[in-house]
Amino acid sequence: MGTISLEGLEFFAYHGYYDEEQKVGNKYSLDITIHTDFSLAAQNDRLRGTVNYEELYAIASEVMQERARLLEHIAYRLIAKIREKYPDVEKVHVAVSKFNPPIGGVCLRSKITLEG
Q1: Contact 116, 107 (CB under 8 A)
Q2: Starting from the edge strand earliest in sequence, which strands make up the sheet with 2-13, in order?
Q3: Per-residue pLDDT reduced to its tens digit, 70-81
Q4: Within 10 Å of residue 10's Cβ, how many Cβ atoms?
């Protein structure tokens, strides 16, 4: 068992609970970690038998283009789409961050994490 991670993926997207957030957009960050058995790929030096992180990025990019109100929903959709493409993975861990959230004070970013 091993992990494959993409960390610090950045997107400008139009998510948010408030309508105004969905109009002006914001910067978001994703961290994705996949727990899976990639021993055959490691032994054979072949992409088959592991998670292709180029495809993982494409899935993340697609999910980030679909508007959502909540960070939790973004993480849920991302996990669902990864599991659809790679049904044999053991676990998917996703962190979604929104920079400068509208909370009425100074905050670098809000962040949620979800495992599935």
Answers
A1: no
A2: 2-13, 26-36, 91-99, 109-115
A3: 999 999 999 999
A4: 12
- Give the C-alpha separation, 72 to 59, whole Å: 17
* Distance (Å, whole) CA 64 – CA 71: 10
Instruction: Give dist(CA 69, CA 110) in Å, integer.
Output: 14
CA-based nearest residue to 72, from 94, 103, 53: 94
CA distance 56 to 41: 17
Average pLDDT over all residues of the chain = 97
Is 98 noted as a catalytic residue in this protein? Answer: yes
Active-site choice (23, 27, 91, 98) = 98
Q: Is the pTM of this model over 0.90?
A: yes
User: In sequence order, what E strands does 1-116 have?
Assistant: 2-13, 26-36, 91-99, 109-115
